[in-house]
């Protein structure tokens, strides 16, 4: 999860470039010519609603028109070279959608191209992503569909939004992701984003693996050479690790930051980790 500045692409010029490209198959060009006049208005509406899928009525197109529009995106068409820059250069450190380290070199259509093919190559609708591109589910809250957070439009992504949560036995806790709170009107969208994008892409499995590695080699996993003298000293060390992760990934909601924030925010977990680092047997450490 990360707020990023989108590429400044002249999307209307892209339409003109594609329309004048004689190398596009005749069938595709004919289809494009039949809908290109409607695209500027569709683009304007997208920007007006900031990419909200539930506020965008699909443009009236036939099944054949939809197929041809989507095929243009998948082709090496002159005018669409910017897509490669979106894929590999906008956020190489972390996936802006789910927060996983490394964006995976894919492009996610924020508003799905099979329902809204008119946005197949509209630059504000194309965001760098990892495999969560194909794993995310619809965001529903109380039976109402909610727009997930948009990396280009939702500046709340600059804030720390989520953390890991640990409950149960210290040796094998239940690990999940919770919001840190204080979002006001954004609350439903932040929670829906976690459920529909982060969790389907395996963040909780990754967090559980970090706990397993912590138990196996606590000093090494927390980049320590000796055990901290106190719980506050451990907290300070974890905070410094998190600050470094925030800087490295350009996000307060990368998975490493989510992991460390969860430890910092949980007094029982902190004390248990401190006891573990001091040599206490795992079975002697109280439940979280």
Essential attributes:
single chain, 288 residues, 42% helix, 6 strands, 11 helices, HNH endonuclease
Summarize the structure in short.
The chain has 288 residues and is mainly alpha-helical. The chain has 11 helices and 6 strands.
The percent of residues in helical segments reads: 40-55%
Per DSSP, the total helix count is 11
Provide the β-strand percentage band: 5-15%
Spatial shape: elongated
Mean pLDDT: 89
The tally of structural domains comes to 2
Protein name: HNH endonuclease
Protein described:
The protein is mainly α. It has two domains: 11-138, no CATH class; 159-284, no CATH class. The protein has eleven helices and six strands. It has helices at 11-19, 26-35, 39-48, 63-74, 82-89, 187-198, 203-216, 218-221, 231-249, 255-265, 267-277, and strands at residues 106-109, 126-129, 140-141, 144-145, 162-167, 174-179. It has a two-stranded antiparallel ribbon. Strands 3-4 form a two-stranded antiparallel ribbon. Helix 2 (26-35) crosses helix 4 and helix 9 (231-249) runs antiparallel to helix 10. The radius of gyration is 23 Å and the shape is elongated. The mean pLDDT is 89.
């Amino acid at each position: 999860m990360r707020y990023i500045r989108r590429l400044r692409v002249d999307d209307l010029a892209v339409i003109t470039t594609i329309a004048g490209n004689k190398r596009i198959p005749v069938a595709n060009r004919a289809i494009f010519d039949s809908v290109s006049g409607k695209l500027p208005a569709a683009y304007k509406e997208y920007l007006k609603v900031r990419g909200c899928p539930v506020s965008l009525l699909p443009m009236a197109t036939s099944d054949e028109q939809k197929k041809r529009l989507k095929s243009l995106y998948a082709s090496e068409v002159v005018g669409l070279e910017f897509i490669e820059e979106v894929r590999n250069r906008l956020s190489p450190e972390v996936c802006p959608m789910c927060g996983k380290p490394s964006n995976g070199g894919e492009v996610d259509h924020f508003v799905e191209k099979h329902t809204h093919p008119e946005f197949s190559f509209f630059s504000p609708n194309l965001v760098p992503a990892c495999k969560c591109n194909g794993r995310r589910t619809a965001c529903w809250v109380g039976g109402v569909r909610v727009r997930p957070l948009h990396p280009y439009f939702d500046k709340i992504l600059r804030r720390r939004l989520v953390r890991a949560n640990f409950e149960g036995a210290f040796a094998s806790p239940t690990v999940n992701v919770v919001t840190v709170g204080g979002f006001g009107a954004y609350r439903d969208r932040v929670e829906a984003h976690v459920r529909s994008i982060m969790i389907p892409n395996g963040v909780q499995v990754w967090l559980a693996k970090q706990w397993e590695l912590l138990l196996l080699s606590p000093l090494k996993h927390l980049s320590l050479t000796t055990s901290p003298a106190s719980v506050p000293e451990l907290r300070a060390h974890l905070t410094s690790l998190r600050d470094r992760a925030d800087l490295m990934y350009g996000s307060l909601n990368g998975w490493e930051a989510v992991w460390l924030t969860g430890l910092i925010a949980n007094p029982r977990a902190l004390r248990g980790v401190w006891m573990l680092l001091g040599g206490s047997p795992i079975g002697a450490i109280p439940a979280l």
